[in-house]
Design brief:
The protein is 73% helix and 0% strand. The protein is mainly alpha-helical.
Length: 324
C-alpha cells in the first residue's frame, strides 16, 4: 500500500472504521445464502417431521456461508486492490481506497472464518457437522483458488464461481439432512453460470475498453461470446427448472399442474436481467436484485407462489413421496 493509503487508513477510527469493516464484509452479498436454503426449503413440501428440524440447521448453515463468504471477499479485495483502484465503482472499496489497512483486513478475514467455524458447532449431529464443515471448507478453498489464480482463466473463472454456489446448496442440504436432487444442482449450476457471465458482460457494457484493466480475464472474452453464453445458460436454467416442474405434476395437479405458474415470474426475472445487463444499466446481476424494483417484485411473486402451493399440497406431497 502507498504512504497516502496508509495515512488514509490511519485517519479512520471509531464509527467510520466500523462502517468500512461492514462494507468490506459485503453484507448485501449475504443474499446469496438463499442458495443454502433452497434444498431445505423445497424439502419442506414433503417433510413429515417438524419443520423446525429442517429450518434451524438450514439457517445456521446460511450463517456459516455468509461469514465464510465475507472472509473470502476480504481476501479477494486484498488481492485485487491495485486493479480495483482503476474500476469506476470498486475504487471506493475500503481496501482499494486505503481506508482499511492490509493488516486490519487480514485480521478481519481470520475473525470471519473463525465465526463461520463456530457456527458449524451449532449444528446437531456429528456427521452433519462434518458434512457442513467439509462443504464450507471446500467453498473457502475454491474461492481462494479463484482469487489467487483461476479468475485469470476464461470460462474456468465462471465455472469456479458456479461451483461455489453449488457448494452452498450441498452445505444447506447436508445441514438439514436433505438429499440434494440433480434438478436442484443443475438449476444452481446453470443459474450461477448465468449470473457470473452476466457480470462479465455487464462490466464490458459499463466500462468499455477499461474492463480489461479492472479484470484481466476480460481480455479473453468478447461481447458476442458473453451475450451468447448468457442466453445459453439462462435457457439451460429455465429448462432445468421446467423439467422438475413437469416431474412434480402428480403432486400439484388440480385441473393442470399448478406449479407451472411459478415458471412465469422466473422467466420474467431472468429475461429482465438479460435486458438490463445487456443495456449496461448494471455491471452485476446481483446488484439488480438489490436495486431493481420490478425484478424484486418478480422474485417475491415466485417465492410466494411456490410457498403457497407447497402449503396447500403438503399432505398430498407427503403421501406421494412416502409411497415412492
Amino acid at each position: 500500500m502507498t504512504d497516502a493509503a496508509d495515512t488514509a487508513a490511519a485517519s479512520h477510527t471509531g464509527a467510520s472504521r466500523a462502517f468500512d469493516l461492514l462494507r468490506l464484509a459485503r453484507p448485501q452479498q449475504w443474499a446469496k445464502s438463499v442458495f443454502v436454503l433452497a434444498g431445505p426449503a423445497y424439502a419442506l413440501s414433503g417433510a413429515s417431521e417438524p419443520w423446525r428440524a429442517i429450518i434451524f440447521p438450514a439457517l445456521v448453515a446460511a450463517a456459516c456461508f455468509a461469514l465464510a463468504s465475507s472472509g473470502c471477499y476480504v481476501i479477494n479485495d486484498l488481492v485485487d486492490a491495485e486493479r480495483d483502484r482503476v474500476h469506476p465503482r470498486k475504487r471506493h472499496r475500503p481496501i482499494a481506497s486505503g481506508r482499511v489497512s492490509r493488516q486490519t483486513a487480514v485480521a478481519y478475514a481470520t475473525a470471519l472464518y473463525i465465526g463461520a467455524a463456530l457456527c458449524v458447532l451449532l449444528i446437531p449431529g456429528g456427521q452433519t457437522k462434518l458434512l457442513l464443515a467439509g462443504a464450507v471448507a471446500l467453498y473457502v478453498v475454491n474461492v481462494s483458488l479463484y482469487s489467487f489464480r483461476l479468475k485469470r482463466i476464461a470460462i474456468v473463472d465462471v465455472m469456479c464461481l458456479s461451483i461455489g454456489f453449488s457448494l452452498r446448496v450441498l452445505g444447506g442440504c447436508a445441514a438439514a439432512g436433505v438429499a440434494p436432487s440433480s434438478w436442484l444442482l443443475n438449476c444452481t449450476f446453470f443459474l450461477s453460470m448465468f449470473l457470473a457471465l452476466g457480470k462479465r458482460l455487464g462490466e464490458r457494457k459499463t466500462m468499455g475498453d477499461e474492463a480489461g484493466a479492472a479484470r484481466s480475464v476480460q481480455t479473453m472474452y468478447t461481447d458476442n461470446l458473453l451475450e451468447m453464453a448468457v442466453v445459453v445458460t439462462g435457457v439451460a436454467t429455465l429448462l432445468s427448472y421446467a423439467i422438475w416442474v413437469e416431474d412434480q405434476a402428480e403432486i400439484y395437479e388440480q385441473g393442470f399442474n399448478l406449479l407451472w405458474l411459478t415458471i412465469l415470474p422466473a422467466t420474467y426475472v431472468l429475461l429482465r436481467c438479460i435486458v438490463l445487463v445487456d443495456r449496461g444499466d448494471y455491471d452485476d446481476p446481483t446488484e439488480m436484485a438489490v436495486h431493481d424494483r420490478p425484478a424484486q417484485i418478480g422474485g417475491l411473486v415466485f417465492i410466494a407462489l411456490t410457498a403457497i402451493l407447497m402449503v396447500l399440497f403438503h399432505e398430498r406431497s407427503v403421501e406421494i413421496l412416502a409411497a415412492r
